[in-house]
Write a structure and sequence with these properties.
By secondary structure, this protein is an alpha+beta fold. Helix content is about 40%, strand content about 25%. The strands form two sheets. Strands 1-6-5-2-4-3 form a six-stranded mixed beta sheet. Strands 7, 8, 9, 10 and 11 form a five-stranded antiparallel beta sheet that branches.
């Protein structure tokens, strides 16, 4: 069964990069027996305000709980554990995230997809708005993508370090990767040389570190096309309420307030909020409240593009 909220590939989205497959081989920087990771880096081309950025994080947490914020205009996701749930590949999940960002907030994004955080960020930096660049997981494919790039493309390479490297004819990442460790240490010192050598070989073991559990939870649905049908509106909101309920029960949490936001074809939106008589994670109560919010909006013949349902005031169920 397809999980709620899964969208189709948006028109006009393209994939760039040298790789044609994900999920085979071992990524550069992982040893034998290490699970292949799928890390995505999203660069937002419309800088949201603080509240909207929090909403973006909540939105992406609906795809994977492993979301790390890089305010004000970037975010990283570890998609590894989400692949089985959504029964699709990492590239499709990135497209889903980009579609939701555009559909709900009008935010275009560039994306990078790779086996670690550093490579994903570098891939995103090389992507045009709306595109996704994925770096091949196989070591040879990673090296082919990484080695020709200027050494300044590596994170942490400032002007002084770059000038030192250029003085000795080191202009590309591949040239640095091939340099003997002792030579690089003489140029930069032991600590910086060791870190630079690891980065030049595409190694980055850092995990995606989620923020503390949020006090709210969001479920959203971007419709395949602008919709006028009240019955479809009803089914969409009901599905979001059921999705919120499942997630709350899975995480052992309850909510005391729901907010429904409806996004229209003209990019305007309407929002209604309603408190619950008591905190709960039961889907029937959440569904009744969400449908009440929908009725209160009085959409009539509104052309709806997307819905977002947010549960606020989350706390552990045992404290309710």
């Amino acid at each position: 069964m397809t999980p709620p909220g899964r969208e189709l590939t948006p028109p006009g989205r393209t994939e760039t990069g040298t790789g044609s497959r994900i999920g085979t081989g071992s990524p550069t920087g992982t040893g034998a027996g290490t699970r292949l990771r799928h890390i995505a880096h999203l660069h937002l081309h419309a800088v949201p305000d603080e509240d909207q950025y929090e909403e973006v994080l909540d939105l992406l947490a609906g795809i994977t709980p492993h979301v790390q914020a890089f305010p004000p205009d970037a975010v990283q996701l570890d998609l590894t554990s989400a692949l089985r749930y959504f029964d699709c590949g990492p590239y499709e999940l990135v497209q889903m995230a980009q579609l939701r960002l555009m559909g709900l907030y009008g935010i275009d994004s560039s994306a990078g997809l790779a086996g670690n955080r550093m490579l994903a960020a570098m891939a995103a930096a090389s992507s045009a708005p709306g595109d996704t660049t994925r770096i091949p997981a196989e070591p040879a494919g990673t090296a082919a993508w990484l080695r020709p790039r200027p050494v300044t493309a590596l994170p942490g390479i400032g002007r002084a370090t770059a000038a030192t490297l250029h003085t000795y004819g080191l202009h590309t990442i591949g040239q640095v990767a091939d340099l003997p460790a002792a030579t690089l240490q003489r140029l930069l010192g032991a600590g910086p040389a060791r870190l630079l050598a690891e980065r030049a070989r595409g190694h980055d073991p850092r995990p995606v570190t989620p923020k503390a559990p949020a006090a709210r939870m969001t479920a959203d649905l971007v419709l395949d096309r602008d919709c006028l049908d009240p019955e479809q509106h009803h089914r969409a909101v009901l599905g979001l309420a059921e999705q919120i309920g499942r997630r709350l029960r899975t995480e052992g949490q309850v909510t005391d307030r729901l907010t429904l936001t409806v996004h229209y074809a003209d990019r305007s939106s309407s929002t209604r909020t309603r408190g619950l008589a008591e905190a709960t994670g039961h889907s029937p109560v959440l569904a009744a409240t969400a449908l009440g919010l929908l009725a209160a909006l009085g959409l009539q013949r509104a052309r709806v593009r997307a819905f977002a349902l947010r549960a606020d005031g989350l706390r552990p169920a045992e404290e309710a």
